[in-house]
Automatic annotation (TrEMBL):
<feature type="domain" description="ABC transmembrane type-1">
    <location>
        <begin position="88"/>
        <end position="298"/>
    </location>
</feature>
<feature type="transmembrane region" description="Helical">
    <location>
        <begin position="84"/>
        <end position="111"/>
    </location>
</feature>
<protein>
    <recommendedName>
        <fullName>Phosphate transport system permease protein</fullName>
    </recommendedName>
</protein>
<comment type="function">
    <text>Part of the binding-protein-dependent transport system for phosphate; probably responsible for the translocation of the substrate across the membrane.</text>
</comment>
<dbReference type="InterPro" id="IPR035906">
    <property type="entry name" value="MetI-like_sf"/>
</dbReference>
<comment type="similarity">
    <text>Belongs to the binding-protein-dependent transport system permease family. CysTW subfamily.</text>
</comment>
<dbReference type="InterPro" id="IPR000515">
    <property type="entry name" value="MetI-like"/>
</dbReference>
<feature type="transmembrane region" description="Helical">
    <location>
        <begin position="207"/>
        <end position="229"/>
    </location>
</feature>
<feature type="transmembrane region" description="Helical">
    <location>
        <begin position="163"/>
        <end position="186"/>
    </location>
</feature>
<feature type="transmembrane region" description="Helical">
    <location>
        <begin position="131"/>
        <end position="151"/>
    </location>
</feature>
<keyword id="KW-0812">Transmembrane</keyword>
<dbReference type="Pfam" id="PF00528">
    <property type="entry name" value="BPD_transp_1"/>
</dbReference>
<keyword id="KW-0592">Phosphate transport</keyword>
<keyword id="KW-0472">Membrane</keyword>
<feature type="transmembrane region" description="Helical">
    <location>
        <begin position="279"/>
        <end position="301"/>
    </location>
</feature>
<dbReference type="InterPro" id="IPR051124">
    <property type="entry name" value="Phosphate_Transport_Permease"/>
</dbReference>
<keyword id="KW-1133">Transmembrane helix</keyword>
Length: 309
């Protein structure tokens, strides 16, 4: 009898094991909840976005290649004026230009913070970078409206609203993201890489250029892609300085629009289920697809970086 009690005690799960089981169950439940939310959002936006083509019978070629955006009107050919090409082009232009301008500044700042003057960089530049991250988008937009737009108007003429003003605002907004992630990438380069380069007779700048930056290239590319994703999805700040004209951009200083600016300006002024509302949901679907593309690109860069190591 006593032997049976001892056997039961030996095979009985401890309190720690029960807590571990409960913890695993809670974590798994949280994972399932997150997956359900993400899948639900994707399905909801995809269903709404496809209504333009399935319910309203708008051709995809007219939507993605059309240049006239006025869902309540008709084109000369008699089709609904839901051409999204001007907004798509505007979104890509401001995103790419902002990334091109901000990348050299971000890499230079990160190199200074990690390789040239780490102590001063940590004391001065890191708090500044964190401060830029915490500024609300509407503040960036208001500064752009008060400073950037008059500057562009004075320098290039026109109204001052356009792709160039949106690029300058997004440049400042995505700079902290690229800087912080580039700093992390440079810090992850093993110290013995630098020591080996110095031992072979390379100068400090040769070591930074030929060794450190090349070793950190996958991380830097990931930072740039994250910055582009941030710029592509920005709405309020860009809306305040780009001009909100749903026209194909003819130059960098003419009023234009992006996918997000049209969405924020028009979503509250449409009736659910109407063509105008369905067309806006289609723009949201394009934004979602681009977000998924940026995430897949980040994973691809990360895997290539892991393989190269």
């Amino acid at each position: 009898m006593q032997d049976q009690k001892l056997a039961k005690q030996l095979f009985k799960k401890s309190k720690t094991a029960r807590y571990e089981r409960v913890g695993r169950l809670m974590c798994f439940s949280a994972l399932l909840l997150i997956m359900a939310v993400v899948i639900g959002i994707i399905v909801f936006i995809a269903t709404k976005g496809m209504s333009t083509f399935l319910k309203d019978h708008i051709k995809m070629t007219d939507f993605f290649a059309g240049t006239l955006w006025n869902p309540g009107a008709k084109t000369p050919s008699g089709h609904a004026a839901v051409g999204a090409l001007p907004m798509i082009v505007g979104s890509f232009l401001v995103t790419i230009l902002a990334a091109v301008i901000s990348t050299p500044f971000a890499i230079g700042t990160a190199v200074y913070m990690t390789e040239i003057s780490p102590k001063r960089g940590a004391k001065v530049l890191q708090p500044v970078t964190e401060l830029l991250v915490g500024i609300p988008s509407v503040v960036y937009g208001f500064i752009g409206l008060s400073v950037v737009v008059p500057f562009v108007r004075h320098l290039f003429g026109g109204s001052g609203f356009g792709i160039l003003s949106g690029t300058f605002v997004l440049f400042v907004m995505i700079l902290p993201t690229i800087v912080s992630m580039t700093v992390d990438s440079l810090k992850s380069v093993p110290q013995y890489y630098r020591q080996a380069s110095m031992a072979l007779g390379a100068t400090k700048w040769q070591t930074i250029w030929k060794v450190v930056l090349r070793a950190a290239t996958p991380g830097i590319l990931t930072a740039i892609v994250f910055g582009m994703a941030r710029a592509f999805g920005e709405a309020l700040a860009v809306q305040m300085v780009i001009g909100n004209a749903s026209l194909m951009p003819v130059n960098l200083v003419s009023p234009a629009s992006t996918l997000t600016s049209v969405l924020t300006a028009g979503m509250g002024n449409t009736v659910m289920g109407s063509l105008q509302n369905d067309a806006l949901w289609s723009l949201a679907l394009v934004l979602l697809i681009m977000s998924l593309f940026f995430n897949l690109l980040v994973h691809f860069i990360g895997r290539k970086g892991a393989f190269s190591k």
